[in-house]
Amino acid sequence: MPPTIRPSVCTLCFLLLMAALTLSFAQAPAARPQVCISGFYDLYLHPDEWQKTRPMIDSVIVADHSINARDTDAQLKTMFDDLNSWNIKFTLEVGAVKPWGPTGAKCFAANSPKWDRFQRLGAHISAIAMDEPLVCARYNLKLSDDYAVQETAAFVALVRQHYPEILVGDIETYPSTSVEDHVKWITALNTRLASLGVRGLDFYRIDTNWAVFTLANKGTWRDVVKIEKYCRSIKLPFSLIYWAAEYPGIDRLHLAADDTWYEAIFQEGYDYALCGGAPDEYCIESWLHNHAPGPTPVNVVPDTGDFTFTRSVHDFVDKFVAARTATPGAQH
Q1: Residue 109 belongs to what H/E stretch?
Q2: What is the torsional sign of CA 257, 294, 100, 111?
Q3: What is the pTM of this model?
Q4: pLDDT in tens, 156-192
Q5: Looking at 161-297, which runs of residues are DSSP E strands?
Q6: Residues 167, 310, 324: CA angle, nearest 5 degrees
Q7: Which of 10, 218, 229, 236 has the smallest C-beta neighbourhood within 10 Å, fewest atoms?
Q8: Mean pLDDT of 210-223
Q9: Distance CA 224, CA 241 (A)
């Protein structure tokens, strides 16, 4: 009969410590996904009318050119002071390659005075999201993907040099850009940035025209999940825009209303989750207008009203975000 092997006191202590650590790691919750929303002006004009929704929001995004042209210094300062007091991050959608700025240097030269103005008035710009430089180079400028890589990298390098604290991400479209082309684009852009000694992308955001899945039998949510998984494989936070892609077509039939918007973003939420999608950031945006014409949804607040923008955000986040955990996401 073989002798009984008795563990030493040190061994027992080590095993107990490892078991405790394993249990603590297993029980530690993963980081909550981020939530970003369109930065409608009514959010700042009526702060008391979206108090239930505000704690759910991590950041707002606005187009830099729109608020620069629209708002006075006093209005902007009030906006930035409010965001800072609410602990909501301020992010911008910006041009990196555009018809009005076909090179990265020209876009940067046009954009940076706006950013300087915002910062002077109290803005803490957390991140910028480049507005579809690949799509613009391909379809507006009729130039090569290599050109898009070169000029986008030049733009990012300038941002890193002059605004090192600002995160830089990219927005691109699907299904007009295939899964394979998204992977090639991310790889080529990050490779070019590395060759310049510049940090790569901080996040990647997909703008999906999911209406064409049905109307043109083109694209699937499973393909978007493939892009998400690729981003996760290279530790690039993945962001997805949630919007009412079906709204314009329904509106042309004069059948659309604010409940159309509400139901559509929920439909996207269900469909993407059903395919196993779980973005690091949920970006809920509306740039739509109805046939009146008027904004969609018509009312931004209150978040206690039926089918307002902030009510739709509140209910969507409560359904799809608050109760789940995910890989740490885009911290902007």
Answers
A1: helix 104-120
A2: negative
A3: 0.88
A4: 999 999 999 999 999 999 999 999 999 999 999 999 9
A5: 167-174, 203-208, 238-242, 281-284, 289-290, 294-295
A6: 65
A7: 10
A8: 97
A9: 11
Tens of pLDDT, residue by residue over 27-45, are 333 478 999 999 988 999 9
d(CA 7, CA 50): 61
Mean per-residue pLDDT, 122-135: 98
Q: In 3D, which of 112, 95, 94 has the Cα closest to residue 103? A: 95
Fill in the amino acid letter for 329: G
Query: Residue 331's pLDDT is what?
Result: 52
Q: What is the pLDDT of residues 231-243, one digit of tens each?
A: 999 999 999 999 9
Round the CA-based radius of gyration of the chain to a whole number and report it: 23
Longest dimension (CA), the chain: 91
Tokens of 319: 């359904």
DSSP single-letter state for residue 7:
P
* Phi-psi region at 122: left, alpha or beta (left = phi > 0; alpha = psi -120 to 50): left
Distance between CA atoms of 198 and 127, rounded to whole angstroms? Answer: 16
Q: How far is CA 9 from CA 2, 12, 200, 331, in A?
A: 22, 5, 49, 44
Structure tokens at 97: 């390659």
Least Cα distance to 40 among 313, 323, 325 occurs for: 313
- The answer regarding whether domain 55-201 maps to CATH 3.20.20.80 reads yes
Structure tokens at 47: 């702060």
